[in-house]
């Protein structure tokens, strides 16, 4: 997990440590992490991606389905193996070192193996904070609270606020998000 239960306890001020409480907190953190992964479009935890098929675009940069790329293991374009030292990578794309050759256009014509993501200790703070915020909202929904709060006004009107909508907690992640069309 990206965020520990201890950090979650510090963030929420809820130090309940019964076995069932810890299991529940781990479930909230895991669920919040899944929400983040879905929004980002990739798993931010560093991992190896072996034999990933991507389509060439006849452009000089080839975008991959995760970020940041940390290692390139192998590259096969149209059944031709290339030495990985011919490529550079940055964030979520790779390019030929001479920056002159495009990636030949084709559908699933490139087979690539690489490593991408962040080590949990170097995970961007915005990701950790978003997980903490969303998990805290989930925690607040326990004990019969369904994620709504209300406010009554003097004219007998009432306003309800849905605080289980995670949109405003996900917006800071937009700069890290991978969106493909």
Features of this protein?
181 residues, alpha+beta, 4-stranded antiparallel β-sheet, 3-stranded antiparallel β-sheet, 4 helices, 9 strands, 28% helix
Global geometry: elongated
- Helix and strand composition category: alpha+beta
Please, what is the oligomeric state?
single chain
Order of helices and strands: HHEEEEEEEHEEH
What's the end-to-end separation, in Å?
30 Å
Write down the overall mean pLDDT: 88
* Strand order across the largest sheet: 1-7-3-4
Measured on Cα atoms, how large is the radius of gyration? 22 Å
For the largest beta-sheet, the strand count, sense and barrel status come to: 4 strands, antiparallel
The number of helical segments is: 4
Percentage of residues in DSSP E strands: 25-35%
Which runs of at least 5 residues are low in confidence (pLDDT < 50)?
Answer: none
* Whole-number count of domains: 2
| DSSP helix fraction | 25-40%
**Total beta strands:** 9
Give a description of the structure.
The chain is α+β, with helices and mostly antiparallel strands. It has 2 domains: 5-43 and 131-175, no CATH class; 47-117, no CATH class. The chain is built from 4 helices and 9 strands. The chain has helices spanning 5-12, 19-40, 125-140, 167-170; strands spanning 47-54, 61-63, 69-77, 80-82, 87-90, 93-96, 110-116, 148-152, 158-162. A hairpin with a 2-residue loop joins strand 3 and strand 4. Helix 2 (19-40) crosses helix 3. The model has no long low-confidence stretch (mean pLDDT 88).
List the helices and strands and how they pair.
Blueprint: H1 5-12, H2 19-40, E1 47-54, E2 61-63, E3 69-77, E4 80-82, E5 87-90, E6 93-96, E7 110-116, H3 125-140, E8 148-152, E9 158-162, H4 167-170
Antiparallel strand pairs: 1-7, 2-6, 3-4, 3-7, 5-6, 8-9
């Amino acid at each position: 997990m990206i965020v520990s239960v201890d950090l979650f306890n510090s963030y929420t001020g809820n130090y309940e440590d019964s076995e069932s409480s810890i299991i529940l907190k781990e479930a909230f953190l895991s669920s919040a992490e899944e929400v983040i992964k879905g929004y980002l479009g990739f798993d931010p935890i560093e991992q190896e991606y072996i034999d990933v098929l991507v389509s060439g675009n006849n452009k000089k940069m080839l975008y991959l389905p995760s970020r940041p790329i940390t290692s390139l293991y192998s590259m096969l374009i149209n059944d031709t193996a290339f030495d990985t030292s011919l490529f550079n990578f940055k964030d979520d794309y790779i390019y030929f070192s001479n920056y002159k050759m495009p990636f030949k256009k084709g559908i699933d014509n490139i087979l690539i193996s690489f490593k991408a993501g962040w080590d949990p200790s170097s995970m961007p703070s915005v990701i950790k904070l978003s997980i903490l915020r969303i998990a805290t909202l989930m925690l607040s929904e326990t004990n019969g609270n369904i994620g709504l709060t209300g406010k009554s006004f003097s004219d007998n009107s009432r306003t309800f606020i849905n605080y289980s909508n995670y949109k405003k907690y996900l917006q800071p992640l937009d700069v890290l998000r991978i969106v493909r069309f």
